[in-house]
């Protein structure tokens, strides 16, 4: 009789134990972790890591088991082809949701793969409007798009900087050109003249030929759509050529790295925008920035808070649905509403962040200082 009872008791004990055992849930993060803008990708990755650590500390239960969220991180090197390769790697690894990519040029092509696999994707920083205009149910964005940001840049250049003549340069990426297109549209709508529309690439560091041509046209403002790795040399060479025009760039260069790369070329005539709120106006910004510095030994570059809120949104949606199955929790993600580090997190039917804002910063006293917020 004991021989029969023992296996039964053992099975019962195992069943009871398994009900309380951790269940591992893989979640993905992808961005440029190497190359000229690797610091921005690592910034996003760190924000995701912090969100996962916070979630695991809460011992959230999903399906009756304590969920242990495990990060699978990939490097897309800011390259569209690589982005598709690593997106497929994440899908094959069985991730249940993805925060990424960083660039519009990588986010947009990868989004089709995630959509076909039914895996929710939240970009913390890609701003090209096309991303959420594709009709995919799996695409979400944490920040204002280029229509909003480009419009804010153009408006600031014309109204605040009194720019009557504007020169626009971009790096021909989906992000840079898309942003520049929106700037040009807004500038013209406000009655100012675009005296030059030039472009390089996302690898250009020698801008002298383009800038020499622009100098002859004496623009009031020069606006650049691109990342910090190219914006820094551009600004430095502008000043060395004696171009005294105000300089305005977007969120891809609105970080400490631009200050470093521009060297003696940066001055109070340099402005940049970030698609989001300044940290002192984020509901939990001060606390997050301090925790981030302590945990990683580095300052937030740009979008780590949005990467944090993006991963938190995925985890909260799983908890609300009591499931990590994307088919089950996706509707909860689409309708989610919570107060995050960056503010109210809620998406439009298309997947854009609701009520996105754009902050304009000016270089002053060695750093970027927020001077106005455009809603």
From TrEMBL:
Gene3D superfamilies: 3.40.50.2300. It comes from the Bacteria. Residues 24-351 form the Leucine-binding protein domain. The keyword Zinc does not apply. Residues 1-21 form the signal peptide. CDD domains: PBP1_ABC_LIVBP-like. Pfam families: Peripla_BP_6 (PF13458). Keywords: Signal. Belongs to the leucine-binding protein family. This is Branched-chain amino acid ABC transporter substrate-binding protein.
